[in-house]
Design a protein that fits this description.
Blueprint: H1 3-62, E1 75-78, H2 85-89, H3 92-100, H4 114-123, H5 142-148, E2 153-157, E3 169-170, E4 176-177, H6 182-185, H7 187-190, H8 193-196, E5 199-201, H9 204-210, E6 217-221
Parallel strand pairs: 1-6, 2-5, 2-6
Antiparallel strand pairs: 3-4
Length: 231
């Protein structure tokens, strides 16, 4: 074989090797680009996931926790009337009560005379009551809401004669007044003997306290001598 032929063979091998090396380099570049692209796609995906997680978590991070409301075993409402706040505030006994508990200074009656305000206490509305006449009222009220939550209730009415009395005034010297007993005006109470039995004379209160039998919700209405109306 001639030197030229030998050199030609040698050069051809070099050319083939260079082509192979170039192909390897191109393949490596391609693989590197693919790897970089995959890394970029992965980063984009991770960034999107992070953004999605942030979107979901931010409302939870910044959401204010619901205030914890105290649970009361007993709520006892005593209704006195016909005196201005300024006058009551000066009474030593009521001042002492206010100091021991929570004083609500933005609590107002809805209207005049008394009965519509009593009605609103259990119906959440005056229910078109405008005077002191007898009213028989249909509609959802506090009694039904209490019973729906398995909470007991009773109303203590001073000098109430019992037997689901529906008269306007009753008892010695007409001390009991129906207008101060909103429960008897509720159809769902007055026409239901079991519920009506929860309207009792206030004299029953001492016995219930002694027997540890106070209901979850108590409503106490003094008679016309004791409700501060004329004091």
């Amino acid at each position: 074989m001639s030197l030229f032929a030998t050199n030609g063979f040698y050069l051809r091998n070099i050319a083939l090797r260079n082509i192979a090396l170039r192909n390897i380099a191109l393949r490596n570049i391609a693989l590197r680009n693919i790897a970089l692209r995959n890394i970029a796609l992965r980063n984009i995906a991770l960034r999107n996931i992070a953004a999605a997680v942030s979107f979901l978590l931010l409302p939870m991070m910044f959401r204010t926790a619901s205030p914890v409301r105290p649970a009361f075993e007993h709520i006892f409402v005593i209704v006195l009337e016909k005196n201005d706040y300024a006058a009551v505030q000066k009474d030593a006994y009521f001042a002492q009560l206010a100091a021991r508990g929570q004083l609500l200074t933005n609590y107002w009656a809805l209207t005049h005379p008394s009965q519509p305000n009593y009605i609103a206490m259990i119906f959440g509305d005056v229910m078109s009551v405008t005077n002191s006449a007898n009213y028989d009222i249909a509609g959802r009220n506090l009694v039904e809401q209490l019973e729906a939550h398995e909470l007991s209730w009773k109303t203590y009415q001073e000098n109430y004669p019992g037997n689901c009395c529906t008269k306007s005034f009753e008892g010695p010297e007409m001390l009991y007044g129906r207008k101060h007993n909103p429960f008897i005006s509720a159809d769902s109470v007055r026409t239901n003997p079991q519920r009506c039995a929860r309207i009792v004379d206030a004299a029953a209160l001492d016995a219930d306290i002694a027997a540890d039998a106070l209901p979850n919700f108590s409503f106490y209405a003094p008679n016309k001598w004791h409700n501060a109306h004329n004091s």
